[in-house]
Amino acid sequence: MVDLMRSTLIPPQTLAYLPKLPAYSTVRVRRHAYFSVINVYNFSSFPTQRLYPWPIWIQQSNSVFLRSNGSKNAAASTKNAAASTEIGALFSLFQSLGFDEKKAEAILSRNPDIGSSDVEFLRNRIRGLQSVGLEDFVLAQLISKYPDTLTAKEVGSLIKFIHGLDGKIEPLQIERLLLRTEPRFLAGFDKKVELLLRHGIPQEKIVHVLNNVSLSKAICLRSVQEIESVLTFLSRYEAVGIIAKRPSLLNYDLNTQLVPRVGVLQKLSGGDEDGVGQVLNRLPAILTYASEHLQSQVEGLRKYAGLSDQEIFKIVLLFPNVMSVSKERKLRPRIDFLKECGLEAREIYRLLLRGPAYLGLSFEKNLAHKLAMLVKIGYSFRTKELAMAMAAATRTTPKKLQEVISIFLSCGFSSDNILEMSTKHYPILQYNPRSVERKIEYLTEVMDREIEALLSFPAFLGYNLDSRIRHRHELRKKVGGEDMSLNKLMTVSAERFSKTKKYLAHLGGKAGVEDSDTD
């Protein structure tokens, strides 16, 4: 129960914390704390009356009123009540985030603008941060680290920008960004992202880029000019698009990382910027390797295979992953095997042009199985023929190679026949098993040819069934004339093939394979 002469009711929403001191204690006024004199009767055991300073945000179960000295203090009391309402609501907001009085006061001391901000504005800022995926415990951690988060306009602009994206940035990315970046460095975030779009990053890929890059390092802590320089540099090689494939490249420093790494390729190519651009677009990850590593790989190919820079670059152009192959575990042993098979530097180069992936395949999981199958059908160890067959087999899997050999055996061919066909045309070892089956079926059932025709012209299996084999066979039937060998039927040019019946009947053509189908 409370006794008063002229009193003003304390608004309940201003009361947030339990009293810390008894009535008779000496009270030291804290910063941001407001006090009023309260006249309280307590009848818990016996009536007592005390006057003492009381923090206005203290919440009591008793009915509490402010003592007034008359009408001249009424206006001041009303003003204090309004202010106390705002302060009470502020501390209530802090309490909802898990901050006690001490922590709340520490935050206010580091960012006084919070105390002068409208509480509803602060609530909206917190709701905005929650709307982009931040959990309450992360919010508390963020506000403790950067109190300016609650008032900085840069944070508001960032929230608005995130809401405007077609897709959503992952909450974990936003959490990392805000916890690693002072609010002032968030300025211009939207402009920097728009710069990526203007330089060719597709709109539908921008969220993917933002989700897979260090937003603080790559965007916020760099100026617009620095980001522009990176994009301009990549534009020289028509390679801005690699950022969408490998967003982490934006994390790299232009002068100390990107320029030296591209420089190794530029020198190797002899200044062929188009060629360098092709390498970058085929394997953006090549820029994740230090320039020292790239140079070491080049030196390994020079030393082990005896290749020139121009030859090395052509191999890199076909198989950029050669730059990631272990020199001691793969590169050197693979080249040593080719040398044991009797190949010279020039022959090694030609073989690698046909099957550059040979340098990167696992011996235990891939090459060993293929080597065993090739030896089983008749290839001899340490021969050039075995080396060429291995190069062709790099374009297929051990399982598919076994299936192709099984198809030939099921058609009545012996191991010697398969050896004969493959040495005439090594690519038959890499063809798709289903494609081989369909073409053999068409050859024997529709074209009415003997299966043995493949012994003299195994390259038949490399032509496209619809656009080449079926088309030419049907046209040949239509114009009539004497029979033609498979070789002539397939290898003559389309222009000459379309000529008169008379010419077709006496047609000859040079050997070759066009429109191959190795799917």
Detail the topology: elements first, then pairings:
Blueprint: E1 6-9, E2 35-42, E3 48-55, E4 65-68, H1 74-96, H2 101-110, H3 113-116, H4 119-131, H5 136-145, H6 153-164, H7 171-180, H8 189-198, H9 206-211, H10 215-220, H11 224-235, H12 242-245, H13 254-269, H14 273-282, H15 291-305, H16 309-318, H17 327-340, H18 345-354, H19 363-376, H20 384-393, H21 398-410, H22 415-424, H23 433-446, H24 453-456, H25 465-479, H26 486-491, H27 494-497, H28 501-505
Antiparallel strand pairs: 1-4, 2-3
Helix pairs in contact: 8-11, 13-15, 15-17, 19-20
Can you walk through the features of this model?
Belongs to the mTERF family. InterPro entries: MTERF (IPR003690), MTERF_sf (IPR038538). Pfam families: mTERF. GO terms for molecular function: nucleic acid binding. Keywords: Transcription, Transcription regulation, Transcription termination, Transit peptide. With 519 residues, this protein is mostly helical. Among the domains are: 91 residues, no CATH class; 100 residues, Alpha Horseshoe (Transcription termination factor 3, mitochondrial). Helices cover 56% and strands 5% of the residues. The chain has 28 helices and 4 strands. Strands 1-4 form a two-stranded antiparallel sheet. A hairpin with a 5-residue loop joins strand 2 and strand 3. Helix 8 runs parallel beside helix 11, helix 15 runs parallel beside helix 17 and helix 19 packs across helix 20. The protein is elongated, with a radius of gyration of 40 Å. The N terminus and C terminus are likely disordered.
